[in-house]
Amino acid sequence: MKALDILALEPWYAGSHRSVADSLTAHSAHRWTWRTRPGGGVRWCLRQSALTFAEEVGDLVKGGERWDAVFVSSLCSLSDFRACAPRAVRALPHVLYMHENQAAYPVSDNIDGLTRDRDAHLAFTNLASIEAADVVLFNSEHNRVSFIEAMKDLLGKAPWTVGGSWIERLQQRSHVVWPPVPEDAWAPPALHNLVPDGYADQESGRRRIVRVAWPHRWEHDKGCEELKSLIERCKGDPEIEFRWTILGRRFKEAPKAMKLIKEEHADVLDRFGGPRNRAEYLQILQCCDWVTSTARHEFFGIAVVEAIACGCLPWLPDRLSYPELIPSEYVGLTPWVSGIDTRKVSCRLKEYLSSAREHDAVKRIDASIEAAIGETRTRAL
Questions:
Q1: pTM value?
Q2: Predicted local confidence at residue 117, as pLDDT
Q3: pLDDT confidence tier of residue 193, bands split at 50, 70 and 90
Q4: Which of 29, 87, 296, 307 lies 20 to 30 Å from 274 when distance is taken between CA atoms?
Q5: How is the chain split among helix, strand and coil, in percent rounded to 5?
Q6: Residue 290 forms beta bridges with which residues?
Q7: Mean of the per-residue pLDDT values of the chain
């Protein structure tokens, strides 16, 4: 197929959303025209960005630009955009990429009841976007299933009966396509964790040293309180001396638990805070033995996949999206499991996650867009 022209809308050009957008631009077989915003304020993204993008796209159309398909991020209301966009754009196939869903997204304990009720509108925005899309791509099966289950619960509270045919339509037009994880994470680890005299044989007194990475956003949904509790439980373990590397994106208002971790447990912290650049970030991960998560929600887990690609073993809960990322024989691995062949396990994990490698994942997204265009053209005949 010849190179296509794709119009892409991303109102949250930051974090994993930015990573996916950059991978598509760099490695897709097609040409991408991006309209973006820097991120910040989920509610504003979902309620305002579509109208802003529709106006901008109208100007581009007046200037003579044309596309073959539209690719929309889940933090943009596709239904609003498609209703307000120029007629020529509305007729194009629209592909929706569900990075996350608002129906299953945990609300902070600090949010008041009125705001919680208003947040239900965000879940309905997701549903309307899905109904307006020609093809829906979820980044994990957990994302898709959790959306369906949470929406069923929400619709059960509606003042009138809502039929279940939306579930059938969603299942028919949706697929799971893992997001692309940049290739630089997949380079063979050259440092601590896979060398012959690695962590399994190191001793501090009579205890093994185990270095654990926690590479997540410092926000309530990533389980900062749970991280603090885990560090405290692991202190004084008779078999293992745990050393912690706390990475991830920090915000101006960090959860109190993160401050307490630094104040109360500095003696077991190898690092507390993000690196200066991505190269340093990957080097730090290569120095760790395990990656862990205390998340209350995770729709995919790019940070975890990057850590595994860097040679970390997965110490992950058996819930959320994590079981999809780990071969069944390695679900439930912990630092206390003895006799682990780290090289063998790491190679198996990387093989299992190959669909998330940048080039492979981008090809799958390209194929989904191409199929949507083909179906639209077939219906037009």
A1: 0.91
A2: 57
A3: low
A4: 296
A5: 50, 15, 35
A6: 212, 313
A7: 91
Note the pLDDT of residue 108. 59
Per-residue pLDDT for 276 more than 90?
no
Q: Is 110 helix (H, G, I), strand (E, B) or coil?
A: coil
Residue 199's contacts (CB-CB under 8 Å, 6 or more residues apart) are: 192, 193, 208, 209, 210, 211, 289
Instruction: Grade residue 376 by pLDDT with cuts at 50, 70 and 90.
Output: confident
d(CA 37, CA 315): 35
CA-to-CA distance for 89 and 6, rounded, in angstroms?
A: 11
Asked if 221 and 290 sit in the same domain, the reply is: yes
Residues contacting 261, CB < 8 A, separation 6+: 224, 227, 228, 231, 246, 269, 272
**Which has the closest alpha carbon to 182: 370, 346, 368, 21?**
21
Report the number of distinct structural domains present in the chain. 2
The answer to whether the CB of 19 falls within 8 A of the CB of 302 is: yes
In this structure, are 197 and 262 located in the same domain? yes
Alpha helices by DSSP H, 63-112:
78-84, 87-90
Range of the domain at 318: 183-356
User: Residue 318: is it exposed, middle or buried by C-beta count within 10 angstroms (0-12/13-18/19+)?
Assistant: exposed
pLDDT at residue 71 is higher than 60: yes
Q: Are residues 91 and 200 in the same domain?
A: no
Nearest of 293, 278, 308 to residue 215 by alpha carbon:
293
Q: How confident is the model at residue 378 (pLDDT cuts 50, 70, 90)?
A: confident
Q: What is the pLDDT of residues 335-358, one digit of tens each?
A: 999 889 999 999 999 999 999 999
Measured CA to CA in angstroms, residue 209 lies from 43, 202, 227, 243 at distances of 44, 6, 19, 7
CB 287 within 8 A of CB 247: no
Q: Are 67 and 182 in contact (CB under 8 A)?
A: no
Alpha-helix runs per DSSP H in the chain: 15-27, 42-62, 78-84, 87-90, 113-132, 141-155, 165-173, 224-234, 256-264, 278-286, 302-309, 322-325, 342-352, 358-380
Q: Measure the CA–CA gap between 47 and 119, rounded to whole angstroms.
A: 11
**What length does the chain have?**
381
